[in-house]
Amino acid sequence: MMTKTYCRLTLHERIQIEKMISHNMSLTAIALALNRNKSTISREIKRQKHKHYTALKAVCRYVELQHYRRTDKTK
User: How far is CA 31 from CA 9, 27, 43, 58, 71, in A?
Assistant: First the structure.
């Protein structure tokens, strides 16, 4: 039985998501094009609180969260 490992979205994938949203593609079509699960795409879009998804803001948010998680782990 093969298990699927989780891999975070890359900058390139986020840029593709932004382009496909601007072309009014459905979440299912975007997921198929990126070979990702539909729920992954949906969660990525919902994470941005603004109406328009932008890849740069998504990456900045991801980097901030990673920095916070690494620096806040002191005893």
Answer: 12, 6, 12, 17, 33
SS3 3: coil
What is the crossing angle of helices 55-71 and 38-47, to 10°? 80
CA 64 to chain CA centroid, nearest Å:
14
- What does the alpha-carbon distance between residue 13 and residue 51 come to, in Å, rounded to a whole number? 19
Residue 36 CA from chain centroid, whole number:
10
pLDDT in tens, 24-72: 999 999 999 999 999 999 988 888 876 788 888 888 888 887 777 666 6
